[in-house]
């Protein structure tokens, strides 16, 4: 017997809604579990004190500072480099074997496990270039890790800008660079920023790369040449070595809140920038 | 009567654009086959022909927008005031002198005023007063000023289709081109909007030279001083518009303008 289109339509709708609900429930469970277990241990002192007794006591201020510094270095390197590469690929090259090769390479790089980037960073930045275990080495290695993501999302965003905008700008006497900066980039910005935010998220949550390249010093870092641990590494060590479950969950709660604040902040910044360019 | 139907005047009409034996290829496809043609100063040259006749390729070769199509190759010479368009050191300068209006209105997603100043600001800075003058003059020339003068700072996307196309004409005018290429500018417009655009074109030829590619033979008859008929990449005939529509020299021209194919 043939099932009527109305029935299949109904079944499809229910299945799709269930899939979406499952994703939301999983998210709520994970975030809720961590926040419920961690938030009550998060005090002002926890946020502002040094790490004492390997994390059993004190706070996580050095880990917060270390996280921010390392993500700042990573994004500071990867965002300009990634966006520039994407602009080159999307606006300055004609589709050919070479660009297809480059794109294939980028896609492969995006799928490489982070531990490989950790090992690469350790050999290149820590040993060969002599940066030692430091925020600088960690930042560079994280940048290498998130670069493919940023290039891919930025290129997608650039390509989604209607071709006609480029034609109009060129017909009005704009140079290629003016075409890019005045009539393509402004409209690709939301997509580009999404890629950068993804990169920030991946850098913050990364442990393997950071342990290999930035070490796990508990002291407050004073410059990018100091070793430091990020919140994710701190959490990993506390939980894995059974140092302190309470402080581990408190760290995780702070980590999740940080990611939330960065996402909300970045998107509201983007909305403010886009307001003048709002499409009717 | 000159050979290609140039209007007889006291002096010989001055050729603004000379097209000499131009071939256009897209990969293995030949879009234009050795076309030679003059565009006289202050005329409206209508270019008609069925789809794939090479009309747009001819247009794009004039302001070198064809350079932006990766597989396109152009042979032969296109001269602007006697100077080969490929000899322009900056293609941007060429495109400021030969402006273009596209088939569909493409307002950039910004305000009306920003749309109009987009082109001029690519070349240089403008004083506030200069910018105001440029905006008003361009909008007046495109017969749009009265409709939008009170909302220059609202999004151009809120305009109707016909208004958007006149905005695009005004935006092209704001760059102060000498020649304006129209690539089927009314293909998406209703008859009333089309009439307004045609009215603007007739006014514009006083200060500009116009080339109008159109699918609509009646439009060519209404606004063209001369009309060129292209078919499969060949220039079949170019003559004064009334001759093309009443007594064409070629049988294929007659068949096309009387609607027997196309």
Largest interface: A-B, 24 and 28 residues
* Proportion in β-strands of chain A: under 5%
What is the CATH superfamily label of one domain in chain B? P-loop containing nucleotide triphosphate hydrolases
The biggest beta sheet of chain A reads:
2 strands, antiparallel
* Number of structural units classed as domains of chain A: 2
Query: Which bin fits the share of residues in helices of chain A?
Result: over 70%
Q: Biggest sheet of chain B, in brief?
A: 6 strands, mixed
Low-confidence stretches of chain B: none
What global shape of chain B is seen? globular
Total of helices of chain A: 11
Q: Tell me, briefly, the overall form of chain A.
A: globular
Radius of gyration of chain B: 18 Å
Radius of gyration of chain A: 22 Å
Which H/E pattern describes the elements of chain A?
A: HHEEHHHHHHHHH
CATH first level of the largest domain in chain A: Mainly Alpha
User: What is the CATH fold-level name of the largest domain in chain A?
Assistant: MetI-like fold
CATH architecture grouping of the largest domain in chain A: Orthogonal Bundle
Strand order of the largest sheet of chain B: 6-7-8-3-9-10
CATH-assigned homologous superfamily of the largest domain in chain A = MetI-like
Topology:
The complex is a heterodimer of chains A (280) and B (262).
Chain A: H1 5-38, H2 44-48, E1 51-52, E2 57-58, H3 61-92, H4 97-111, H5 114-128, H6 135-159, H7 163-171, H8 176-205, H9 208-214, H10 231-240, H11 245-274
Antiparallel strand pairs in A: 1-2
Helix pairs in contact in A: 1-11, 3-6, 3-8, 3-10, 4-6, 5-6, 5-9, 6-8, 6-9, 7-8, 8-11, 10-11
Chain B: E1 15-26, E2 29-40, E3 44-48, H1 55-62, E4 72-80, E5 83-84, H2 91-97, E6 98-101, H3 112-123, H4 128-141, H5 145-148, H6 161-173, E7 179-183, H7 191-204, E8 209-213, H8 217-223, E9 226-231, E10 234-240, H9 241-246, H10 251-257
Parallel strand pairs in B: 3-8, 3-9, 6-7, 7-8
Antiparallel strand pairs in B: 1-2, 1-4, 4-5, 9-10
Helix pairs in contact in B: 3-6, 4-6, 6-7
